[in-house]
Hints:
Distance between the termini: 12 Å
Helix content: 55-70%
Low-confidence stretches: 323-346
Order of helices and strands: HHHHHHEEHHHHHHHHH
Strand order of the largest sheet: 1-2
Amino acid sequence: MLFLAILLVPAITGNFTLTVFGLIFGIFAMGYNISLGETGMLTFGHAAFFGLGAYGCGLFLAHVDYPAGLGLIGIPIGVLVAVVAGLLIGALSLRRRGTYLALITLAFGEMIYFIVFQWESLTGGDDGLYGMSTPGIGIPGVYVFEFEELFDGLVTSNMLLFVFVFLVFVASLYAMRRLKHSNLGHIFNAIRENEDRASFLGYDVYRYRLVAFVVSAGFSGLAGALYPIFLSFVGLDTLSWLLSGEVNFFVLLGGIGTFVGPLVGSVSYYFITDYISAVTDHWELFVGLIFIGLVLYLPEGIVGTARDYLAKHTHYSTVSVPSRSHAGRPDTDGSDVGDTAPGVED
């Protein structure tokens, strides 16, 4: 049903560009949810991993003379850059928790922003990175498929890029779902609920928090690597602390601890802002009021509220899910929150 809904959105609205943005930032938000919703680590520097993934892929596309059909190698390069950065930043940051962790990651994010801003000869500085083209996919010398118009414009390049990003999204969703329902995912949830108890059970809390942080950074980098392939441009805004704030908002809007909530939050955000900005120049005021209302009256997020409504008014049942104060809390106090870490339904 989720995949069908995603496919119907551009078919109904006719806006493939906005849907692709929603999917890219949906991958970013769902990747960040591994840190916040699944493991309870609040950060304000996750845009650094998205931006590094974008610049890693963009630099490969702009400066490497790659064979035709192999340009998509830039995607794993971008992911690798984000993973290495996540490992280094996580190793230095995760000894702290709560507000301290959030501020440390914010500081690292700003350091990376400043480095990219100053390194104009490589990154383009404030002008951004451009001069790249959308790469084709195929076997060099045999056949290379280009993301260009087909059938006299009946199929546009944006439609083809939507299909490609959608396939990457499906693969990412599958991987994250497998992780969520694996033993490793359950350990993440146990750490989120009570670090002391997880430690008493023999788990190395620091190591598992680091694993969650690096995996989260990897998915964020994957989303970032798709950015230059779609836009053929990378700007400093991909590293901005504002984007780190936005991804936190996506997760809150969709529902912390829900599987598809961050995706719903990101898609809702971009479609609401796009349509209201087309109606009025003061769209920020109206968008802000709408989102304040959503946060006040849907405290568990869009998906979380829908799940609770279905559980209350139908025979649909879910495993007990902790309230937002527990599911997304970045710190633990050792208090008793139950004998088992509750699961989270999709």
